[in-house]
Hints:
This protein is α/β, with parallel strands linked by helices. The chain is 33% helix and 16% strand. The chain has 2 domains: 2-124 and 305-380, Rossmann fold (3-Layer(aba) Sandwich); 131-304, Rossmann fold (3-Layer(aba) Sandwich), CATH 3.40.50. It is built from 13 helices and 15 strands. The strands form 2 sheets. It has an 8-stranded mixed sheet with strand order 3-2-1-4-5-6-14-15, with helices on both faces. It has a 7-stranded mixed sheet with strand order 9-8-7-10-11-13-12, sandwiched between helices. Strand 12 (287-290) and strand 13 (293-296) form a beta hairpin. Keywords: NAD, Nucleotide-binding, Oxidoreductase.
Amino acid sequence: MLIGVPKEIKNNENRVGLTPAGVSEFVKYGHEVYVQATAGEGSGFADAEYEQAGATILATIEEVYEKAEMIVKVKEPIAQEYPLIKENQLLFTYFHFASGEELTHAMIERKAVCLAYETVELSNRALPLLIPMSEVAGRMAPQEGAKYLEKPLKGRGILLGGVPGVKPAEVLVLGAGIVGTQAAKIAAGLGAQVTVMDINLNRLRELDDFMPKNVTTQYSNEYNIRAAVKTADLIIGAVLIPGAKAPHLITRDMLKTMKPGTVLVDVAVDQGGCIETCKPTTHEDPTYIIDDIVHYCVANMPGAVPYTSTLALTNATLPYALKLASQGWRVACLLNEDLRLGLNVVNGKVVYKGVADAWGLELTDVNQVLNENTMFEESTFMTV
């Protein structure tokens, strides 16, 4: 298969879809890889490293899209990429369609095959391609929150861990999944007093067993959230409903009950955000203030640490990408339920319920799409 790796052009996105090591694996299995010039520079990988691994360097993004049968990216295509996408071209990347109506309609119109990292799902409901970036974003959230709590950045002027004789900051984490767990761990390590809320009591029991004593757990409901936001200095939104919009747990009216200079970090922003006043921001202009409350809502937080993020992401995506390349997307998805759940939009049809529900679109059974015109011999594809 012909694999294309374009340079990410979203604002301040320095990650890249494939490392030189990943290119080497594709080449080993007989695939051709085309990498846009300087695509890996932001993550610390030079064009020469890709060439040594067996890739062909192409000068422009247009050439990459034109050549490739499968595009391997990090973030969803943006408007200037839409015309470059070809019918039946496979795009393997983060999409977050439930928070992007324009993107959804564009991919339907282009009749591309959109396989989203964030909805590839294991039988135990784990999200293997979302976990690495959730780990990065979760660990970054207290770090960014601590920075914006500083007075010159319009925060309360409070040190997260306090000092002897001075109480530490109070951190509220909404959600006890991967992001929330990592956020609580780092905030606690910095010395803050942390409260983690979730509706999954079994998960709260697990956290209670291994978290340090400065982390407490509490059942999540509106009453408890309204009480907690009044004393919190930093609130981290870490809610995820796979493939669907996040619910608004922090509403606009709650802002007036918070202390001026409180910082909100909404890690769920790329799924619509769990804070009603959230809107996507960039690393270039990361915060805004409403009712004296600092909002940090960067939609690609891991893009600020691209070397770590790119390596972590490729570790997770490469085995799946190799299956798609060696078996073809249709066969790979028929044989692998994890990948089948990653299909969101296929040849103009929405095949993922969360996306259809978000925008009131017709849902097509993914199995119907997979079995359309499917004829293959097991001997015609490679096992990876």
